[in-house]
């Protein structure tokens, strides 16, 4: 017999993150970091227990409510930059604002401002393929910033970068955190 095949990714985990905190979740492979990130980012809901985001219990929300929260409150930065190769840098950032229902002019203005903040104000019309890995990751940071989220979630944002570029990207995230919004 196989026995109990139930996998508990986050059993007995409890923590609070307050507004303004800069938090890193670290642990060995398979320890539940990605599961935690998916729950925090409203990409997944816990099967038991409670997750409150800004005081609201996320566990009881339907897909539409979760999508709305992701769109309004959260910015995501991934290890893979997920940039669209046919679009230039400005359009790559602006496209993330389509769901916010903003007119094109405002989307482009906010995208340009976010790209300025990450030091890419002179690269607005470059295609992703014309940028280094570190610059592409900065585009994805700008994309996360453009929506003016309350929370930015970065899942191994330096995983695809060399150590020097990794330090630069982490430094940029810390600088943006200090600046707040």
Overview of the structural elements:
- By secondary structure, the chain is mostly helical.
- The protein has helices at 33-40, 63-73, 89-94, 104-117, 133-146, 163-179; strands at 52-53, 56-57, 74-78, 151-155.
- It has a two-stranded antiparallel ribbon. A two-stranded parallel ribbon has the order 3-4.
- Strand 1 (52-53) and strand 2 form a beta hairpin.
- Helix 4 (104-117) packs across helix 5 and helix 5 (133-146) runs parallel beside helix 6 (163-179).
- The relative contact order is 0.13.
- The model has no long low-confidence stretch (mean pLDDT 90).
Task: Jot down its keywords.
181 residues, 4 strands, two-stranded antiparallel ribbon, mainly alpha, 6 helices
Could you list the spans in which at least 5 consecutive residues all have pLDDT below 50? none
- Residues in helices, as a percent range: 25-40%
Mean pLDDT: 90
Q: Rg, please? A: 18 Å
Total strand segments: 4
Share in β-strands: 5-15%
Distance between the termini: 56 Å
Major sheet details: 2 strands, antiparallel
- The helix tally amounts to 6
Structural class: mainly alpha
Strands in their spatial order, largest beta sheet:
1-2
The general outline is: globular
Secondary-structure element sequence?
Answer: HEEHEHHHEH
